[in-house]
Description:
The complex is a heterotrimer. Chain A is α+β, with helices and mostly antiparallel strands. Chain A has one domain (4-179): Alpha-Beta Plaits (2-Layer Sandwich). Chain A is built from 5 helices and 9 strands; from the N terminus they run E-H-E-E-E-E-E-E-H-H-H-E-H-E. The radius of gyration of chain A is 16 Å and the shape is globular. Chain B has 6 domains: 19-59, no CATH class; 80-147 and 344-557, Rossmann fold, CATH 3.40.50.740; 156-342 and 563-583, Dimethylsulfoxide Reductase, domain 2; 607-765, Barwin-like endoglucanases, CATH 2.40.40.20; 797-853, no CATH class; 876-932, no CATH class. Chain B has a 7-stranded mixed beta sheet with strand order 5-4-15-14-13-6-7, covered by helices on one side. A 6-stranded mixed barrel of chain B has the order 20-24-21-23-22-25. A 5-stranded antiparallel beta sheet of chain B has the order 36-37-38-39-40, with no helix packed on it. Chain B starts with 18 loop residues before the first strand and ends in a 12-residue tail after the last strand. Chain B is of the alpha/beta class. In chain B, strand 16 and strand 17 (489-492) form a beta hairpin. Chain C is mainly alpha-helical. Chain C has 15 helices and no strands. Chain C is globular, with a radius of gyration of 23 Å. Chain C starts with 7 loop residues before the first helix and ends in a 9-residue tail after the last helix. At the A-B interface, helix 1 and helix 3 of A face strand 3, helix 1, helix 7 and helix 26 of B.
Amino acid sequence: MTRYAMVIDQRRCIGCQSCTVACRTWNDLPIDEIYNPVVSEGVTGIFPHVHLTYKPLLCQHCDTPPCVPCCPTGASQQDEDGIVWVDPDKCMCCKVCVNACPYGARSKSHFEGFVRKCTFCKPRVEQGLQPNCVATCHQKARIFGDLDDPESQVSKLVRGMYTERTFEELGTEPQIYYIPDAGGQL
Amino acid sequence: MADARTIDQKVDIHAPGVVVRKSACYFCHQNCGVLAYVKDGDVIRIEGNPEHTTNLGGLCCRGNIALKHLHHPGRINHPLKRAGAKGENKWEKISWDQAITEIAEKLNQIKAESGPEAVATAGGTLRTDDWSRRRFMNLFGSPNSFHNALLCWIPTFMVETAVSGWSPFETELSNSRVLILWGVNPGASNMPGMRGYSDLKKNGLKIIVVDPRYSETAAHADLWLPLRPGSDTALALAMINVIINEGLFDFEFVDEWCEGFGELADHVEEYTPEWAAPLTWLDPEDIRKAARMYAMNKPGNIQWGCTADQLGRTAGAGMHARAVLRAITGNLDKPGGDVMPGPAAYITDEELEANDRLPDEVKPKQIGYDKFKLTSWQGYGRIAEISKATWGKAPTAEWMCEAHGPSVFKAILTGDPYQVRALLVSATNPLNSYGDTKMVLAAIKKVEFLVVCDYWMTPTAVFADYVMPIAGALERPTIHTNYGVTDSIVATERAIDPLYERHTDYQFWRDLGRACGQTAEDWPWEREEDVYFYMLQPLGLPCESYDDFVENLGGAYYPPQHFYRYKEKGFCTPSRKVELSCGLLEELGYPALPTYIGPVESEVETSEVAKEYPLVLTTGGGFMPYHHSEHFQIKEIRYLYKDPRFTMNPRTAAKMGIKEGDWCWIETRRGRIKQRANLEETVDPRVIYAQRGWWYPERELDTENPYGCLDSNVNVITSVDDADCDPIGGSWANRGLLCKVYKVQEGDKVTNEWSIPGSASEPGIHETYSTSKLAYEVVPKERRHYPAEFEVPEGLEYDELRRTAYQPGTGYRYDQNSGWLIDDSTNVYYDLVTGYAYDPTANDLVDTEGNHYDMQTRELKVLSETPTFDMPEGLTWDVPTQQAWDPATGQVYDPNSGWLIDPNTNVYYDVVTRYAYDPAANDLVDAEGNHYDLETREPKGGAQ
Amino acid sequence: MNRHYWSWPIATYLFLGGLGGGMLFLIFVFDRLTASGLLNSGYALTLSASGIAPVGVGVVEMVGIVVGLCALLFGTLLLIFELGQPKLFWRAFITKTSIIKWGAVLLTIALVFGVLWWTALTPWEWLHWTPWYGKEAFAVFCEIVAGSAGLAVTVYTGVLLSSMKSKPFWNTPALPVLFVVSALSTACAALTLCTTTTWTYFAGAEFTNPLMSMMVAPDQMVELNAQVLALVQEQAIELFHTLDIVLVFFELFVIFLYLLMMLGAGNKVANMVAKRWLIGSWAPLFWIGMILCGLVAPQIMYLVGGVLSETLAPVLVLASGLLLRFMIVFTVDRRDVPGEYKYYGRLPELNEEFITKDWTKTAWY
Lengths: 186, 944, 365
């Protein structure tokens, strides 16, 4: 079995938003659609004793995605490899999935008769390529791979490093693992 | 849905007919590798090239918008000729050839009327083949080409070259233990570099970041020094003080390889950390900590960073001090240290520039020649001379030998030192990228003839007589060589031919040169690929063409790095050592030792200014996703970064009632601009960090304020006054200026009233080139001399730089060990007394007529017509060589041993039988392999 | 994130669904109660539609069913209108799990059985051809189904929202309770209005009135004299007022409980939304619009009685029900990752010049 997942090393992320732009251009997204914003709660502390980390967001491709069972049409679906995606031919755009997603990972303001979302660059992954946000990251802060393959880098990192997941308390079992930046040290 | 394709990614890069080209990004200096998926002559998709050595597949924001850039409807696609009044924005589309012809006619006319120096050119950042502009200018005869190079590493390069013979530019960090990122933020400006730092940090590399702002990079530092903007010089001097006083310098290296250490130690005695504390706002202990971390973790290095070049009058001393830091810690040219590659082995940009074609008499006409000497012909000329003496090659003149840009604009306005009538602008937008925008705007409006080569209709291009469409990323090959001051090459090919009537800048200068009357021999290369292939020639790489190099050799050439090159020939300085006390600077009139001079404005030195302008401004730093003044047209990234933002400390903002996102004026003595407040604890409460480059290409054109270039553009408030510029390298002041900030009120307006020197209150010209003063008086001193350490024979001239005597006229080098004269080009030895050449065959001297002379007596050898010894039968006597030989075989008779010797193979032959001597069997052997006894010459028995 | 992906059609739909479902349910309850004799005969004249045959009485119910069905139908149309691809609405019936699917099914059941119920009793002769016309058992069956489905619809609108883990302000079982209470109170108010309206028309004794003719066969009209009508109306109003006083009071109680719960909850986003209602930008609308005008004022009017209690008070209750749905939908925030507010707050509007600029109209294009 294959279970795609991503590890994001916040210790390496510098908030450049290359992934944001790469995603927009590769996927020809509408101007106001952003699949992977790089957010930051800003600088913490008082100058000069400050700290800053960035958190790239994207669809978490949850193990129990709230956006799939809520879909009345079956357009919002999850593949066996864990990729959550929407079939535009089936979607009637009721936006219930958009509301259901706790991560804001679906179309935010741009609806053209269907709901869009990050698909881990499904066509690229099927061709054996990395998702474009991963490929474009200069800092190599994003690591993508098969969690079920014990030899893959993601499964090694998830096993061996302290990782956090977003809104884990919701029981969505998100599959984006963050290695937090505790204080500027690698 | 059976088809796995989702709504996105409609373009199939695996479709038949799609070709992958190994192209490059061209939006900053890194030239990251890009895979371009090309179909039917157009690029349909791009992504980072995972095999490219620079970026390993990574692409930043602007790299990713290459296709938007390529196909943007706002691009200039055809040559435009002004159809209305200047700045009216009315254009006539004309053909490339017509435009070139008309421009050339006008330039030739100006040259005939006012001399070639009345034509100046402005270049952009490393986004062009700028050697071709220099080549054009040299052939045209004008020394007035300039750049923003004076703000970007070039003065640093020149000062460091003056001090230690080359600027450490090659990065070989795998052995480094400490790294100073001084005034550089790779986290926003050099993504591949940042990746490298992050990787190395994981392996224990210590990183010191010197930056007033808690930058993306500072966030990953081991030690962050948030100094007062513009106080870098004080910090560097204090670090030297600590390193010397605490004995942390590299004693062996300093002792053996540095000049003037004692003077330096005395000189920096006063620059204690306590002295620097009020200037830098740093805790003296932090300065000590940084100095110790840097000096005690060896090898270490100081990375490339341009802040030092943007500090105005204090810049030069700071560069000098940093050069000293590198040297006294013994980090120069060692693995993991500051590696100094010297000029490249391939054809460097300097060799393509045809600098020898620029007549010497026009060089002093270069604007800035007598003021900012190190980076113009005076200083560059010396450095080129020294460099050629050491390496045989010089650093590139483009970048390193510049007219002083702001002075050129002022010359347009004042006619002093002379009227500049034409300005050719390539790949730059001076209204946004040069200091004192209001003055530059006046100059751009006034200049008689303006040609702009650009991708876009910039605020500058609006006023042009001709706007030329330039081909950019994906439309041209790129070769990343650092213009030949480093060893490596990273090359990529073009994805497609230029679209529409776009041409590359090389094509522009070549076509213009030809149209101005330059010959086909002057411009022998048809396309970029031809030049680049020519550049590769000396490397002897196994490739047939440039594209072959890219496709099949990976486009990368990394020669093995060589360290400690100074151990062969010494450092590339007149003293052959690192000149801590720098002879070249002294000779040009600058302090020989790094001598503190404060920033242009400061609360310490200009406290009366600080009363009205209590905050300290820093600007000029790169920020994602824009590069310099570019990319504001690309809505895909502008959507993410819509407005200019300045950063200020929330505590300061609270006192002024400024809230996050408020539009505020930032005002200096020279004017004001508005940006939106970004309140973050990333800067000191006394510091304002403003973004650079902003203009608004989407706006309707207002000639008084073209595309809002006076609205939010920090250069409106920076200073280019002569007194504020660094006398050494001409850098003007972007950082460490005093300012105040207040909220924008309804009805507030910008003004374009300008003045020289820059002032918001007193418009008009108050000083000109010849009346303005520099920050300090420049008094040239006599050149230091290095007399020969051997006796120079009479009649020979001693060359101090090469430490060698030469024979005048012939240029033959005197070898003091052997006493011979040597022609290095042919490696022929000549007798010092007679000048006859040595003939190794006859072991005697021979003159040009072929007469031979005795080695010892130098007397003409009498040639005997008959053999001078008993010549065996069957041989012939050769009169000129005085030898017996066998003309049939070419074997020569050796009268001493009695054998015949083949001079080619050195095989001995028996003079009677002509059998060869077999040293293995110690007998003779014939051609069939039969052996004969050495004495009896009888065939050896069947025993074998 | 203050990004409500659903806008007014959905808010209106949530209101209309609750209203229609509530009305069907209440009519079903009253009808069964009168039929079983638990309510007195005075009510019976007004309320029991199926209990008394042939048709002619149970006027309020007959009007109420039509109004309730119209509310459901209009709500459903709004729902479909809001869809990005309305032509694919049928797909809503094919999945197993989604709440919307159950909503769609319930709506359909309520609508279909509501129509059957009504047609089984309809006074319109031209509709009497249906085989089930006048079949009491069938009418009662349909009534049970439609009434239950109506209640289920009111519950479902709340459950749909409360299932969103992404919205802490919705994601609580209290929301369906609030929705059901509000739905029933608005339904009750609507029935009051139906009664008032019906009575007004009857009192005029103008049997040619189109609304009348729709409800009651003309030949039966004569049986209803003004006196009877007045009694009937009085009793009905009394019943609805009593019920609505309880429901509105309960609704006030639930709303405040709900907001207090959100204020006290650990979730910052829920806190923030509750504050937005109580002291933030929506506070005037909440305090003056919803609480004062929408609930407290009608409550007083109900207690005082008189013309206003029969006319304005139910209208205000209906308006407050609509406002409640709008506020619930429009004020909600997604649970945010720290920094998201700042990030999205800095993004431009789509009418910014750099986005809208037509470069092909530039002088150099």
